[in-house]
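Agenda item 2: fe (ii) ion complex prediction
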Amino acid sequence: MSDALASDKSILDEFVDRCRTIASGDDPVAALTREMERLVADPSALGETVSVPTAGASIAGFDEIVFEDDSVTVYLVHSAPDVVQPPHDHLMSAVIGVYEGRERHRFFRRSRDVPVPSGTADVDAGDVLALGPSAIHAISAPGAWCRAVHVYLGSLSSVDRTLFDPDTLDAEPMTAERYDAHCRHEPVRSTSWG
Ligand SMILES: [Fe+2]
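Presented output:
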């Protein structure tokens, strides 16, 4: 374990403070990406400083809110193994850093308001992914729990977001209940998603 991280019990609090400063500055996505790269540079050490939830899981896992105001939202996202979560948007830029396991992303682009599969990416422990405000993605954790920090440049709970049925890709308003209803507990295949 890194001594610097091990001795710092408020590493997430300090990270939030830096995110808030970055959010009001120039080129926040680039600066936040660099800040996230520093946060997850030693992923096992970060994992040892962040507690693992033990109750309250949905089929998708656990979402823990660390901080939210009008400028930035910080979540810990603990994704359960082999649950295919549904496509959704955020309507704001996001930066994701993984500190345990692998977060698999399926991406979609809008074509005449219909989401069309547009690729995939695996984000492993220690890696960082930035998403633009028009991004639509669906995440999963192949084979093992994935734990990640998700930062959004705005108040995520304040916007009317869209969720997509994973089978039909029909759009509907995002709610936690509907998100869970669209989760599919099945082995996360590596090649079936376009
Ligand atoms: Fe998301």
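Discussion summary: DSSP finds five helices and 13 strands in the chain.
Owner for follow-up: CH.
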